[in-house]
Amino acid sequence: MASEITYAEVKFKDPLPSEEAKAPKEKSPPQHEPCKPPQWLLWLISGLLLLLCVVLLVVFFVVPHQQNCEEHKALPQNISEWLCAVRIAEEEERVWTCCPKGWKLFRTSCYYLSHDTARPWDASEKNCIGMGSHLVVVDTEAEQNFLLNWVKGRVSDQKEISNYCLGLNSQEVEGQWCWVDGTLYNKSAAFWMPEEPNFLNSEKCAVMQMGGNRASSEKKTWNNVRCSLWCHGICEAAAMKI
């Protein structure tokens, strides 16, 4: 007898959703673009920084230069004795230029040599200022030759080194030389000794060095020294014209 096969239709319910499926999906926070400063604010900040840089440059460079290179007053007019010389100016006009007694006239300037008294550089400059002048400013070869010949005639012992203060220093900025009357320093019109100036961080004052083993024909006599070194002052002031 043949066996019978019975078929039955079975329906299964949908499986229960998992816990992960039941939990609602979290919403991601809305993405915001970074806030950019306005263009005018960037320009304002840049302008303020530029202005600050200019102020710092003035404070560190211009102001010290003006303080060190200030002009000094002319010779006092109440001096009782003057020595005058006449010279021919332009268009053959006769001009009298005068210096106080004890001073030496060269072109349009008067010079005073403090040969018997030596002082530190600062004290020599103050002494000149007290006489209405300043330490000598040498800006031409003719003036350098004049000073050399004048000083040589006052040096008794040529073997001994003598220092004469020049109105040239670099107190504020290392290696930036400055004349005391505001005259611009011209390297091509300087008369430094060979390999001078050196030791710029400590030797910040200039002198004219005479004597020793120097040949009498040598024009380059400048040397930079410590400002505490004692030297003879050479003062200069504009001659009075009448």
TrEMBL record:
<dbReference type="InterPro" id="IPR016186">
    <property type="entry name" value="C-type_lectin-like/link_sf"/>
</dbReference>
<keyword id="KW-0812">Transmembrane</keyword>
<keyword id="KW-1015">Disulfide bond</keyword>
<dbReference type="InterPro" id="IPR033989">
    <property type="entry name" value="CD209-like_CTLD"/>
</dbReference>
<dbReference type="InterPro" id="IPR016187">
    <property type="entry name" value="CTDL_fold"/>
</dbReference>
<dbReference type="InterPro" id="IPR051379">
    <property type="entry name" value="C-type_Lectin_Receptor_IMM"/>
</dbReference>
<keyword id="KW-0472">Membrane</keyword>
<dbReference type="Pfam" id="PF00059">
    <property type="entry name" value="Lectin_C"/>
</dbReference>
<keyword id="KW-0430">Lectin</keyword>
<feature type="domain" description="C-type lectin">
    <location>
        <begin position="106"/>
        <end position="236"/>
    </location>
</feature>
<dbReference type="GO" id="GO:0030246">
    <property type="term" value="F:carbohydrate binding"/>
</dbReference>
<feature type="transmembrane region" description="Helical">
    <location>
        <begin position="40"/>
        <end position="63"/>
    </location>
</feature>
<protein>
    <submittedName>
        <fullName>C-type lectin domain family 4 member A-like isoform X2</fullName>
    </submittedName>
</protein>
<dbReference type="InterPro" id="IPR001304">
    <property type="entry name" value="C-type_lectin-like"/>
</dbReference>
<keyword id="KW-1133">Transmembrane helix</keyword>
<feature type="compositionally biased region" description="Basic and acidic residues">
    <location>
        <begin position="10"/>
        <end position="32"/>
    </location>
</feature>
<feature type="region of interest" description="Disordered">
    <location>
        <begin position="1"/>
        <end position="32"/>
    </location>
</feature>
